[in-house]
From TrEMBL:
It comes from the Bacteria. GO terms for molecular function: (3R)-hydroxyacyl-[acyl-carrier-protein] dehydratase activity. CDD domains: FabZ. The keyword Lipid metabolism applies. Belongs to the thioester dehydratase family. FabZ subfamily. Involved in unsaturated fatty acids biosynthesis. Catalyzes the dehydration of short chain beta-hydroxyacyl-ACPs and long chain saturated and unsaturated beta-hydroxyacyl-ACPs. This is 3-hydroxyacyl-[acyl-carrier-protein] dehydratase FabZ. It comes from Acetobacter musti. It is found in: Cytoplasm. PANTHER family: 3-HYDROXYACYL-[ACYL-CARRIER-PROTEIN] DEHYDRATASE. SUPFAM superfamilies: Thioesterase/thiol ester dehydrase-isomerase.
Length: 139
């Protein structure tokens, strides 16, 4: 429930289930339990379900946005956060039903309302995707 207080995303676009290892202002780990019932698996791909890479990057952004709101406090709850850049995205192996993504984000820098993060998504400590991204909090 705390994630839904922090960011405005809702089903089917809320892509993190839990936040762990939160170090305010610095880093956090988001957890996404990937289920066969995810709506994107109906078309991507029915015979071999694969979580779209852009949704893994979105899960990184949601983890980072939740960290930002937890850091800045209640005045920022529910504010919109928009991507500004996505750099050096790499996808190392497919993510499918039954996988648990652990999404590690680390703040690289913050200036005013712009935050830059490095994200790595892992399954069983194996990197499956990574990217550097920045986003702006809108008033």
């Amino acid at each position: 429930m705390r994630i839904m207080e922090a960011i405005p995303h809702r089903y089917p676009f809320l892509l993190i289930d839990r936040m762990v290892d939160v170090e305010l202002g610095e880093s956090a780990v988001g957890v996404k339990n990937v289920s066969v019932n995810e709506p994107f698996f109906q078309g991507h791909f029915p015979a071999r379900p694969v979580m779209p890479g852009v949704l893994i990057i979105e899960a990184m952004a949601q983890t980072a946005a939740t960290l930002v709101v937890l850091t800045l406090g209640a005045a920022f709850e529910g504010k919109l956060v928009y991507f500004m850049t996505i750099e050096n995205a790499k996808f190392r192996r497919p993510v499918g039903p039954g996988d648990q993504l652990r999404i590690h984000v680390v703040k690289e820098r913050q200036r005013a309302n712009v935050w830059k993060f490095r994200g790595v998504a892992r399954i069983d400590d194996v990197s499956v995707a990574e990217a550097t991204f920045s986003a702006m909090i809108m008033d």
